[in-house]
From TrEMBL:
It is an enzyme of class 2 (transferase). CDD domains: NDPk_I (cd04413). This is Nucleoside diphosphate kinase. ATP binds at K11, F59, R87, T93, R104, N114. Major role in the synthesis of nucleoside triphosphates other than ATP. The ATP gamma phosphate is transferred to the NDP beta phosphate via a ping-pong mechanism, using a phosphorylated active-site intermediate. Residues 3-140 form the Nucleoside diphosphate kinase-like domain. GO terms for cellular component: cytoplasm. Its main location: cytoplasm. It is found in: Cytoplasm. Its EC number is 2.7.4.6. GO terms for biological process: CTP biosynthetic process; GTP biosynthetic process; UTP biosynthetic process. Its cofactor is Mg(2+).
Length: 147
């Protein structure tokens, strides 16, 4: 199976609680390679731009206020079948419904404050990685020797 990339965000709640290191270690243990990473504090407009697809939904204002309240850590991750595997590792959107051992079960508090974001499909992942990282910050998708 080919290598694939996904966009991961360690959300404000998890960064505030100093869970970023544990989450990153878990992702590496699950076979993901960090291809790019940064800590940023989104403005409200930047959060709205990222979640544009959800504009008009009941939770949109709350979601964008939350995502812009304090810094996040954004990662471009690579492994085989990265999009689907990452979503398995973070678990269901609502931590109360997430499987035991998943990142949202371990570190999420509520459906609004659920510790992590992951792209929902490969086309979304490409758009989301490009939203946060310039081309020079992300190396080309691997041949075996690429770093
Ligand atoms: P994400 O995009 O953050 O990885 O989460 P997701 O795919 O599992 O869920 P999505 O439907 O894309 O929703 C984005 C985020 O909006 C918040 N949300 N709140 N109160 C609600 O009913 C509700 N529904 C969604 C969640 O924080 C979710 O992660
Ligand atoms: Mg989503």
């Amino acid at each position: 199976m080919a290598l694939e990339r996904t966009l991961s965000i360690i959300k404000p709640d998890a960064v505030e609680k100093n869970h970023a290191g544990a989450i990153l270690a878990r992702l590496e243990a699950e076979g993901f390679t960090v291809k790019a990473m940064k800590r940023i504090h989104l403005t409200r407009n930047e959060a709205e731009g990222f979640y544009e697809e959800h504009r008009g939904r009941g939770f949109f204002d709350e979601l964008c206020a939350f995502m812009s309240r304090s810094p996040i850590i954004v990662l471009a991750l690579e492994r085989e079948d990265a999009v689907a595997r990452y979503r398995e590792v973070i678990g269901a959107t609502d931590p109360g419904k997430a499987a035991e051992g998943t990142i949202r079960k371990l570190y999420g508090a509520s459906v609004g404050e659920n510790a992590a974001h992951g792209s929902d499909k490969t086309s979304t992942a490409a758009r989301e990685i490009a939203y946060f990282f310039a081309g020079y910050e992300v190396s080309p998708v691997a041949s075996a020797s690429a770093s």
